[in-house]
Design brief:
Aminopeptidase; 7-stranded mixed beta sheet
Amino acid sequence: MPEIFTFTKEILKKYIDAIIRDTSDFEYNNWKEENFLLDLPDKWEFSIALFDGGSITGFSINSRKSDVFYMHFFYILKKYRKSKAGEGLLNACENKAAENKLQIVRLKCNKNNFAALNFYLKNGYAINKTDLHDSNLYLLEKKLNQ
């Protein structure tokens, strides 16, 4: 069973090479090391990493945008997909939002990333609108019950 940790800047730096390597051929990713390490409000308190046997299995880079918990990059490493790790990570993100009294979780998802889109819809997220800056993205959100 994967363990959940706060994804601090120090932990991210330790695993950045593996993360860059695993995400480099992900067609919806344009993040480089500087994107991962960028400081955002509450990022290092809100971001979450999953580990299994000392190996990173997934992560979610999160921050606070006004009164919203914002998921910038949600990712399960390839060899851990279809293991329910995604549901565990998503629940951990929602719990972190609730702990911080944030009632909305929001993210962007590429319209053509059907697996991710279906995952979020299946887990209670709704398409809010098309991103105004990039018509290939949906803005999704979920209101948490508190």
